[in-house]
Amino acid sequence: MTHLPFQDWLFEDTLDVIQADALHSHLETCVECRSLEGAFQQVEHSLRSTSQVAPAAGFTLRWQEKLEVERGRLHKHQIRLAFAFGLGGALILLGSLAILFWPLLDSLDALLWAVVYQLYLAFTVVHQVGGILAALARALAPALPLLFWVLILGLLTQASVLWVVSYRYITNPRRIEI
Ligand SMILES: [Zn+2]
C-alpha cells in the first residue's frame, strides 16, 4: 500500500474537501498513517502545553555586562592588531631603506668622513660669521650710545621669553576640564 500523498497531507492545514475525504478514508484503513497522525498530534499537544521558561532574575543586566566585556575584548584586539600592523609597516620600511642604502652602509667609513667634513664646514662658516658680527659690533660700539645696547638687550630678552612661553603653550597637552 502506498502512503503518499496521505503522509504529506497529515502535516498540511490547507486541504480541500476531496483531499480531506480521501485522507480520512485512508486513515480508517491504514494503521501506519494512523499511528503517524497520533504521534504528530501528541507532539503538537505537548508543544502547546509546555509553559515557557522565564529567564533567571537579572538576565538582562548580566547580558549587558557580558556584552560590555566582549566589546572591551574586541577593542583591545583591534588595538593590538593596529599596533602589529604599524610595527610590521615600520619594519618593512626599515628593511626597504636598508636595501636602498646598502651601498652607502657598505662604505660606512666614507660616509662618516663626509659627515665629519660637512660638520667641519658648518663650524667654519658659523665661526666666520661670528667673527664678522663681533668685528661689526666692535666697530659700531664707540659710535652708538649705551642706551641703544640696553634697548637691544631688552628686546632680545623679551623675544626669548616670548619664544619660551609660546613653545610651552604649543607643546603642552591641552587640559580637559570635567
Ligand atoms: Zn497509509
Q: How is this structure best described in words?
A:
The protein is mainly alpha-helical and 178 residues long. Among the domains are: 6-49, no CATH class; 60-100. Helices cover 80% and strands 0% of the residues. The protein has seven helices and no strands. It is elongated, with a radius of gyration of 46 Å. The mean pLDDT is 85. Zinc ion is lined by residues 3, 6, 26, 30, 32-33. Residues 3, 6, 26, 30, 32-33 line the site of zinc ion.
Beta-strand fraction estimate: under 5%
Gap from first CA to last CA: 84 Å
Instruction: Determine the number of helices (DSSP H or I, runs of at least 4 residues).
Output: 7
Helix content: over 70%
Question: How many β-strand stretches?
Answer: 0
Order of helices and strands: HHHHHHH
Structural class: mainly alpha
The main sheet comes to: none
Q: What small molecules accompany the polymer chains?
A: zinc ion
- What is the overall shape? elongated
In round numbers, the mean pLDDT is 85
Secondary-structure blueprint of this entry?
Blueprint (H helix, E strand, L loop, with lengths): L5 H4 L7 H13 L1 H19 L9 H42 L1 H5 L1 H33 L5 H26 L7
The structure holds zinc ion.
The site of zinc ion has 6 residues, from α3.
Summarize this entry quickly:
With 178 residues, this protein is mainly α. 80% of the residues lie in helices and 0% in strands.
